[in-house]
Amino acid sequence: LTGLNNRHAYAECLENIKLFDGECGIVFSDLNGLKYTNDHFGHQAGDEVILKLSSIIREAAKEYDGSSSGRWGGEEFMLLLPDASFETSWKIAEKLRTEFSQAVFAEGRRHTVSLGITEYKKGDTGTSVCQRVDKALYISKEAGKNRVCRL
Predict the structure, then answer these.
(1) Of 37, 82, 87, 131, which sits most exposed with the smallest number of CB within 10 A?
(2) What is the dihedral of CA 100, 71, 85, 66, to 10 degrees?
(3) How far is CA 97 from CA 8, 92, 121, 133, in A?
(4) Separation CA 103–CA 87 (nearest Å)
(5) DSSP letters spanning 18-38
(6) What's the distance, CA 30 to chain centroid?
(7) How far apart are CA 34 and CA 47, in angstroms?
(8) For 44-58, 69-83, 88-102, 134-148, which range has the lowest pLDDT when averaged over its residues?
(9) Is residue 107 annotated as a catalytic residue, yes or no?
(10) What does DSSP say about strands 112-119 and 148-150: parallel, antiparallel, or unpaired?
(11) Sheet containing 76-82: order of strands
(12) Opening angle at CA 112, ends 136 and 36, nearest 5
């Protein structure tokens, strides 16, 4: 549907994260309210929302050399940013959040996305990075959604 790597292909990228020499940012995003859209406007409307976010993520990946993007789950997406500092990862995540929140869908509907970011740390594995970025995303959602949080 999205043209992005699926979870299995992307998990392989994450398992190789320890091969990166230096900084590496990870952005994890989750659509807010997709279930409501699917339930009230139909799955085609939900797919439109998923496609818009995946398009924005794909464009961000093109702008940042060496990055990799993937659909982690139904409404969750990851972006791996080799050699990206925390500041760079934050700017990219904030750009994704802002651009997506400005998109207008059928019936004038708008949607938001919550994002968590983290950085590769020496000794990290794909699992440890996923756990940390997932926790950052959870903090973002708990803090009111439509924001970027770092861990």
Answers:
(1) 87
(2) -110
(3) 25, 9, 25, 16
(4) 25
(5) GG--S-EEEEEEEEESHHHHH
(6) 6
(7) 9
(8) 69-83
(9) no
(10) parallel
(11) 68-71, 76-82, 24-32, 112-119, 148-150
(12) 105
What's the rounded Cα separation, in Å, for the pair 36 and 19? 40
Q: Residue 53 has which token pair?
A: 């976010």
Which tokens belong to 10? 């992307």
**Residue of 12, 15, 63, 75 marked active site:** 75
Q: Is 71 helix (H, G, I), strand (E, B) or coil?
A: strand
Amino acid 74: pLDDT: 81
**Neighbour-count burial of 111, counting CB atoms closer than 10 A to its CB (0-12 exposed, 13-18 middle, 19+ buried):** buried
Between 71 and 36, residue with greater pLDDT: 36
**CB 66 within 8 Å of CB 17:** no
pTM over 0.85: yes
